[in-house]
Amino acid sequence: MPRRRNPNLLSAYLRQCLREWYQDNPMEKELDRGGIFMMEGMAKEIEGLADADLAWRMRLWKDQDPAVWEDLADKYYTRLAVANLPKIVDRFLKLAPVFVRPAYSTELNVYLQEAGRCYIFGLPQASIALARTALETALNNELIKRLTLLDPKWTLEDRIKYSEKCKIISAPMAHTAQDVRRLANKVLHDKPVTDGAAFDCLIQVRAVIGEIYEKPANKR
């Protein structure tokens, strides 16, 4: 059952303003409905791959009247952002900080932050892919300290096994890391994933990295 939302939140105020604006401008609502529907399809093509049919539509809208094109894009992404705000906040509230020693690399933290942001903003496949990269980066950084040289042929599965042998991670965390690897492989093979799967993956990766760089105070 969805939780009751605080009506005093800024996101609630923005949604209410949008509703009231359209109530006061019913003609704009009908015009925007058609424009936003069209923009949704075009945005997907522009964000990814497009067919040749998009070219003439781009000339019709973007090239001939840039102001109208900007207005359509602004309305589409503004409405999308406002509509998604409650879920974005809900996802953020599910996360908790991972307290660690300052021994991790900037590269690792960037991957982990971006995995977290992709999850928060509703991009589960990107979140899982980046979480996998963060996991592999953490293991590589620690393995190189112990082995000096890493075999470039090693897969992530191999790196997890050697990390357990080198006492970088415990057996339970090695098992967790292998679960992450398997889930990430599904993503790489275009298998659909849910927000829940992305959350579980992110929490698992954060747990493994948290064990590697655990702050002594956490052990009390």
Which features would summarize this protein structure in a list?
220 residues; mainly alpha; Four Helix Bundle (Hemerythrin (Met), subunit A); 2 domains; elongated
CATH topology of the largest domain, anyone? Four Helix Bundle (Hemerythrin (Met), subunit A)
CATH architecture tag of the largest domain:
Up-down Bundle
Question: Structurally, how many domains make up the residues?
Answer: 2
Shape: elongated
Q: Can you offer a commentary on this structure?
A:
- The protein is mainly alpha-helical and 220 residues long.
- The protein has two domains: 10-93, no CATH class; 106-219, Four Helix Bundle (Hemerythrin (Met), subunit A) (Up-down Bundle), CATH 1.20.120.
- Helix content is 73%, strand content 0%.
- The chain has helices at 10-24, 26-47, 53-63, 66-93, 106-120, 124-147, 156-165, 171-188, 195-212.
- The longest helix has 28 residues, at 66-93.
- It is elongated.
- The two termini are 37 Å apart.
- The model is unreliable at 216-220 (pLDDT under 50).
